[in-house]
Amino acid sequence: MQLTQARLLMTCAAASLLLAGIACQIDVGGPKPPASPVATPADPTESMAAAWRSALTAAATTHKLMIVLNEGQLTGFLLSRLDSQSDPILSHAQVFLRQGQMQIFGIAQQGPFRANVLVAIAPVLKPDGTIGFEVASADLGPIPAPDSVRESLSAMLTEAFTGSIGSLATGFRIQTLAIANGELAIVGELR
Fold first, then answer.
1. What CA–CA distance (Å, rounded) separates 35 from 21?
2. 101-110 and 91-98: which strand pairing?
3. In this predicted model, what pLDDT tens digit does every residue of 35-71 receive, in sequence order?
4. Per-residue pLDDT tens over the stretch 62-73
5. What is the DSSP code string of 125-154?
6. C-alpha distances out from residue 38 to 59, 96, 164, 187, Å
């Protein structure tokens, strides 16, 4: 009889722990990643900086700047930026370069709620030779983001890109920008 009560008590305790774990985190789902996870370089910030230095060195003699960045470099760069924040907006972030868009996938958590996030960003080449970004779509969990959130993300990405990479790219005008097959190619000329 005592053995049955002990088993019942252990079963109830295990069930309580399981229910408490489920109650602590509610996964609301959302979009799936557009591709398999991206491998990142060991030092992503240095990898991107080295690519820019190499492109700028070559441009000194040709006056043409050509740089190709891949998904791993951009994912690593994004992860290093997110890791430096005390409360990052995304975890497990990945950057995919497909069909003329930069697609950022990650997981957002707010309190007990956890949701998959997929933001599709289209780069825009401005007449002055700089780059801007327009959020083509943003799915936060099972629902699309409202226009105000998309506009805010566009402004934030444009500022982040021109601020962090713009300092490396000062002095040139971008002529073309293309995204395909996991790579971002930028071609420009020195001013």
1. 30
2. antiparallel
3. 888 888 888 778 888 888 898 888 889 989 898 989 9
4. 989 898 989 998
5. E-TTS-EEEEEEEEEETTEEPPHHHHHHHH
6. 29, 8, 22, 24
**DSSP H/E element including 91:** strand 91-98
Residue type, 113: F
Distances (CA, A) of 152 to 56, 155, 158: 31, 5, 10
* Amino acid letter, 161: F
Q: Which two tokens mark 174?
A: 């971008």
Per-domain residue ranges of the chain: 26-190
SS3 63: coil
Q: Which residues of 136-149 are buried (b: 16+ CB within 10 A; e: fewer)?
A: eebbbbeeebeeee
* pTM confidence score: 0.76
What would the two tokens of residue 83 be?
């890791």
